[in-house]
Design a protein that fits this description.
The chain folds into 3 domains: 124 residues, no CATH class; 61 residues, no CATH class; 138 residues, no CATH class. Helices cover 55% and strands 10% of the residues. The protein contains 11 helices and 9 strands. The chain has a 4-stranded antiparallel sheet with strand order 6-7-8-9, with no helix packed on it. A 3-stranded antiparallel sheet has the order 3-4-5, with no helix packed on it. A hairpin with a 2-residue loop joins strand 4 and strand 5. The longest helix has 45 residues. It is globular, with a radius of gyration of 30 Å. About 10% of the residues have low confidence.
């Protein structure tokens, strides 16, 4: 068993022990190993990582070595969202992504989404790495410092020789001191100009970031119907959901929506946040609350209301039942393919597709 598999197995055992109420587990080692908490980068930082860096982070977080790249990236994004969520917040995560993450971590997935979410939450609460890795890093840093000290000593030994040559050169150049002073003055003038140029560049970067934030806010305020304005609560929920969803998942959902919708939402794959906020505006239900991605909800359109999912109206599904039985009202999400039964009030229940 690889080191990664062993770590995942130990963590899976701890999840099971927690569920069964077992408080003490025997360790395979004689001495308890000191641990330190892992720092998980943000979803944006992970998106900018190289493949080798993602693999290294995945190994640290306990993701199986043989996990496919797409599933690994999904697992990294899910773990990042959970690790960086503010206390008390419930990040919006797709049930399928959570299940993918559970599998990638070497844990046994459940048919119930709630069980997978609970197992993942427990895993995150116990996510640790051996302290020895930290000690190795400290040893490497100490070795680097020692190398620098040796280099400094060699430079000091060479200093007298260089000093003699420099004295001779200074004596030969006494006649050109005035020219040297003029050069110094010119250099100082150039240095004075440098902060101004740098300041302009920084201002430009700040302006670009402000423009992106404004675009996201404006998109979050847009509604599917111009006559129907979103509540402040809905706008806040949309802005929060945009930040909690990894860019890769935003692109995935926008692509899926466009494949099923008559009118597509244009978006930039590198900066999908504004377009994703527009998509989320379509997920606001009749009560002004933001529905979760992949979940059915009631939406009012003009004077009519109906079942929707992922921003589009549910497709009616005919259900075969025994003679004398009443067929349920069933709809299918045209984006995800999930099917839901409507109870006649305001509640949908997901069912297995026939």
């Amino acid at each position: 068993m690889s080191k990664t598999s062993k770590e995942a197995a130990v963590k899976a055992l701890m999840v099971i022990a927690s569920y069964l109420g077992v408080t003490e587990l025997a360790s395979g080692d004689d001495a308890a190993e000191e641990t330190t908490k892992v720092t998980v980068p943000s979803a944006k930082a992970i998106a900018k990582m190289k493949a080798s860096e993602k693999k290294k982070l995945a190994a640290t977080l306990g993701i199986e070595e043989d996990t496919e790249d797409d599933d690994r990236d999904t697992a990294l994004n899910v773990l990042s969202v959970l690790a960086n969520a503010e206390e008390g917040d419930e990040p919006e995560l797709d049930d399928g992504d959570i299940k993918t993450t559970v599998v990638a971590l070497g844990l046994k997935p459940s048919k119930k989404a709630s069980d997978n979410a609970e197992a993942l939450t427990t895993y995150m609460s116990e996510l640790e790495v051996p302290a020895e890795e930290t000690e190795e890093a400290a040893d490497e840093e100490a070795a680097d410092e020692e190398t620098e000290e040796v280099a400094d000593e060699e430079e000091e030994e060479e200093a007298p020789k260089k000093k003699g040559k420099k004295a001779k050169a200074d004596a030969d150049d006494e006649e050109s001191e005035e020219e040297a002073e003029e050069e110094v003055e010119e250099t100082e003038e150039e240095e004075d100009e440098a902060p101004k140029k740098k300041g302009k560049k920084s201002k430009s970067d700040d302006d670009e970031e402000e423009a992106e934030e404004e675009a996201e806010e404006e998109a979050a305020e847009e509604s599917e119907d111009d006559a129907e304005e979103l509540s402040d609560e809905a706008k806040a929920a949309i802005a929060k959901a945009v930040k909690a969803t990894a860019p890769a998942d935003q692109v995935k959902r926008l692509t899926a929506y466009n494949a099923a919708a008559e009118e597509e939402i244009e978006f930039d794959k590198k900066k999908p946040a504004a377009a994703y906020a527009t998509l989320l505006a379509k997920l606001v239900d009749s009560e002004g609350k933001l529905a979760k991605w992949g979940k059915a909800y009631i939406k009012s359109v003009g004077e009519e209301s109906g079942g929707y999912c992922c921003g589009l109206e549910l497709k009616e599904v005919k259900v075969k039942v025994a003679k004398g039985e009443e067929a349920p009202t069933r709809g299918e999400c045209v984006v995800t393919g999930k099917q839901f039964d409507f109870d006649g009030t305001d509640t949908f229940e997901e069912v297995e597709s026939e």
